Amino acid sequence: MISLEEAKQAVIDDFSMYDEWLDKYEYLIDLGKNLDSYPEEEKTEDKLIKGCQSRVWLNSKVEDGKLFFKADSDAIITKGIISLLIGVYSGRTPEEVAGDDFGFINEIGLKENLSPTRANGLVSMIETIKALAAENCN
Asked: Is the pLDDT of residue 77 over 90?
């Protein structure tokens, strides 16, 4: 598995291939389409991320000291955003995730190119991922 820094740099590189935000949105949509399926029975209230306009479910588990995420959303762009985040952070130690600044999100310009409600949802996703990681730190 590549390092966290390499994973974040790969996202930055992927986004830099596109000049227009419309193309970057298409890239996010493709990420969402490729997200692993999420079991319907796990789409429960306690798995919903609070603060998102769309419904976003996030599940985490720790295996062999690593934190793994599964997620889904009922909105395609939001599904792409959560796919992007878990693609970078799933399989890392809780300490790595909890200690990261998620600065690559600002570097790719994602937050400022989302509607205010989606940007708030992005912040909620990041906060939830960090909180789940912090709960599992030793």
From this structure: yes
pTM: 0.96
Asked whether the beta carbons of 7 and 87 are under 8 A apart, the reply is yes
For residue 49, give the nearest of 105, 114, 121 by alpha carbon: 121
d(CA 23, CA 129): 26
DSSP bridge pairs for 62 = 67
**Contact call for residues 129 and 69 (beta carbons, < 8 A):** yes
Count of CB atoms situated within 10 Å of the CB of 61: 11
For the chain, the first-to-last Cα distance in angstroms comes to 22
CB of 132 closer than 8 Å to CB of 67? yes
Which residues are catalytic, by number? 52
Are the CB atoms for 60 and 90 separated by under 8 Å? no
Q: Which helix (H) or strand (E) holds 121?
A: helix 116-135
